[in-house]
Amino acid sequence: MQRLELENYLDSLKFGIDEEKILKEYKPTFKEVGGEQVYLFNKGFDITDLPIEENVSISQQPHDSAIPLHMHDYIEMMFVYRGTCTVTVKGKKIDLKKGELILINKETPHSVGATTKQDIVINMILKQDYLSPSFLSRFTQKSIISQFMIESLLSNRKQNHFLIFRPGEHNNVIEIMENIMCEFFDRDFCSGEIIDSYLIVLFSTLIRYKNNLTSQEPLNQYDNSSLVDFLRYIEENYKNCSLVKMGQTFGFNPNYLSTLLKKGTGKSFKELLQIQRLNQAALLLSNSDLPIPEIAEEVGYSSVTFFYKKFRELYHDTPYSYREKNSIL
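^ that's the sequence the OP posted. Answer follows.
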């Protein structure tokens, strides 16, 4: 299936279903959560009557029907391909428009407002957590900005039990989702592996989008700098970066700058600088045959002994052992 054919195909799948029919035909069990009756769903409405067994399953939100308060034992991602959609999660009403999506955790009560025939809302069931700490950990060694963004995402998701992404319709998220749907609805050899790869690209793109969005948010009304601007400065100047030089660059008192960093990231300037230097050392260990003393000097350490100590604290391994395990040469 080509992407240009997808919208017509999705329109051909559209159907309506009311709450009475849902409860009659699917016979969901329910439990009391916070004094409310919450249905337990484990099926997709328009793909199969069988329990969801695949790692990824895609269905379409039926029109003219509200989905009652429910939860399930899988992660659900709802994506607005066309039109709008309203989701209520734990009492919070969330309006979504074209190109936006919401990721809802397992066992999280939520309901969905009725959509129209003009709306196309995609429900994606994820048995594998593509935003788990283990998945996201692959990004943490890239930069302190990535690490900050990932920790923020995980904290927000843990607190709210869902994540909202609003990249907008002029973002390549729509194109990635189209590729996933084409592969799902027109299965071929290795479709499962290709879908899995697209999902990694999707969530990597969403993390990048969150990064770009955060970099536009000023720290306060008196200054146009953001926390990401500070982290980017450390990334680019880690070899000889100092709090005094950084303060001069941004026009802040060093002590005040230190407070902003600690408050925003939970880490001190020294800790952030240390992490960035060691991240760069890890990259050099994996991607070069430079002697370890030269790598230590290259990333800003004058003492090889101190470098070994700090590297082991962060990576729980010696530089030599790390190179043996991760070298791509």
